Amino acid sequence: MEGFSLQEAVLISVLIIDILSITLALLMSLKYNKNKAKTYLFWSAGLWVFAISVFLEILFALGIYNEFLISTYVFLVALLVELLALGSIQFFPKFVRVYYIFCLLSTLALFISLFFVNIGNIIQNYVVYGALPLVTTIISSIITFPAASIIIISAILTIKRTSKYKDRSVKFKKRVQMISIIIGVLFVSLAGTFYIASYPELLYWSEFGGIVLLWIGFI
Predict the structure, then answer these.
(1) What is the pTM of this model?
(2) Which of 26, 72, 115, 152 is the most exposed place for a label (fewest CB within 10 A)?
(3) Is residue 95 in some structural domain?
(4) Does 109 fall in a domain?
C-alpha cells in the first residue's frame, strides 16, 4: 500500500480481514440460532476460529509474538478448516460418526505435538513467514486436506442438486453461491501454506479473497 510503512500496510490488511470475518461469523451464528441446524453450528464455529486466528495475525503485526501464540495460531488454522468440514459432512449422515472420530484423533495428535515441537520465530517483516517443523506440517496436512476435500465435494453435489430448480434465476444464484463457497474455502484452507512462498503477502491476499467469497456464498 503506497504511503504506508510495511507494518502499517500489514496491520490495515489484517484488521479489514478480521472485521469481515467477525461480521460473517456473527451472521452465521444468527442463522444457527434461527434453525438450530448442525451445519450452521459448525460453519459459524469455523468462522469464529478464523476470526481469532486473524486476530493473532494482528498481534504479530504489532510485534507481539511468543511460542505459545504461534503454536495457538498453527492449531487454529488447522481447526478452522476442520470445523467448516464438520458443517459440510452433515449432508452425508452415513459418514458423520466416522469423521467425528477422525477429527477427534487428528486434532488431539496436533494438540499434543505442539507441546513437544518448538516452532520458533517464523514472523518476518510482521507477517507469518517460514517453514514449519516437518511433524507439524504432516499432522496439519492430515487434518486440512481431507477437510477441504469434504467441503468441496459437498459444494459440488449441492451444485448438481440445483438442477431441480425450475426458476433459472434461482438456479443461477444457488450455483454462484456454491462456487463461491468452493473457491472461498480453498483460499482459506490454503492460506496457511502461502507464508513459505517467495511473497508472504499471498497469505493475506488469500485470506481476504477467501472471506469475501465466503460472504458471497453464505449470505
Answers:
(1) 0.85
(2) 115
(3) yes
(4) yes
